[in-house]
Give the backbone structure.
Amino acid sequence: MKHSVICSLLALLMLGGCQSSSDGQADGDPSEVNVMRIQSQVLVNSFIGNGPQWGGYDIVPSWTGQETLSDADWNTLFKRVSFMRPGLVRIMVSQGWNYISGNTFDPHKSDAILCKILDYCQQHGICVQFGEWGHVGGSAVDAQWVENSASFLSYLVKERGFTCIKFFTVVNEPNGNWSSTNGSYALWSKCVESFYKKFEEKGLLDDVQIIGPDVAVWTISETSWMSNTKNQMHDKVTVYDIHTYPDDQTVYSTEFLQLLEAYRAASDKSRPIILGELGFKYEEGSALGNSNLEAIQADPYAADDSQMHVYDAFYGVDMADATIQAMRACYSGVTYWMLDDAMYNDDGSSSSTRLKRWGFWNILGEEKFGNADDEKIRPWFYTVSLLSRFFPNGSQILNVAQPTPVLSGLRAIAGCKDGKYTLAIVNASNLPYTFTLKADTGITLSGMQMYEYISGEGATFQGKTDADGFPAAQQSDLTLSDLQGDGIEISMPANSFRLYTNMQ
């Protein structure tokens, strides 16, 4: 009871506030050398959640001759996602795949695949970020497209009852030259205006918020998209998001956190911001970049836009590191690119079998691609599923002060909900670290389970799993005692991730 009261008081004190903590600064007591401290400072008052990009599978009928995935494949997907227990998923659609047949509006086109996913999200209370891959109309906005898209959303929310759809993305990555808007803020803002008016007409604004600008960023040079959205679209765009695909050196240094904080600062801090797509793109010409290219060329089913290191254990550490930094930068959720290789191919055609290999698995590995092993869970599911499962929707995200002097690659974040706590720590460096863990008054970690993941060579890692390949606790019923006194000594191996939780 005491813990729950503390969480509630902190929420009231910090309502609407967001004070991020830079890894480049000593944010604890200067006298606490080599101490990591769980603080009572709330970074995010009501966390939305972490989870995957889902959806797609639009090519499944062409590939398999069946209307949808097999029952066995759906059951496998649902079982795995149920372990992950995401608070947030992102699902994107387009008129040709989802609600237009010929020239006719046909929302039932999505019943067999998309609506099955939305059924699952609705039943499990998962917040869905929904939207359009691109706009229609060239340099203008096609009014009929807006009408059809809004009618499809109305069908899903009002007729089918998918109230899990909370956010709507008007155009994917509008700042890019690959986007339908070709980097035009003016055109994107016209799309937003058109959708806002149409949502108003259809009575959707009480159900769904417009999220944006959904820009893909690698540097801080495009923060104007955020500030312009805040200043010019404040009444229409009420949730913010960005996408980013950093390389390893950016994440290992302070650059990644600084990038995230810059876009957070340029947005309206009283409103949530989501990292709407996250994945790694290792720098072209680097050792990892070259090995990724070689793996793509050696795989007859890999599209050029693939991250082949999803098969490697170190990717689990990298994604945990990036996620923790996003949470430290006051982001209210992360969506991972992506759940399943079978969702998307390289060009959207029914003939291409070049997969965008970014997933936790390929659910069609056996029946379409002749490789049953490809349906198995890949290593990075281990860390990301825990960061989804144990930072549930509605959590308060607590700052964790880094040890001083600041240790390269060592980062942590904590969460609190209903008097229960989760602490996640990553050591992305090649060196082991030993430090003392302490906590502010009122934070007690008892009855904890501890999960540990240590990256090895290739796909090998040390980490306990159950019969389904899901993470299993290394230790149970732990009490991390004397956190307000001398603290306890924690030793983190190199290239490792650890999570303590007494959440279920």
Q: What stands out?
A: The first strand starts at residue 35 and ends at 44.
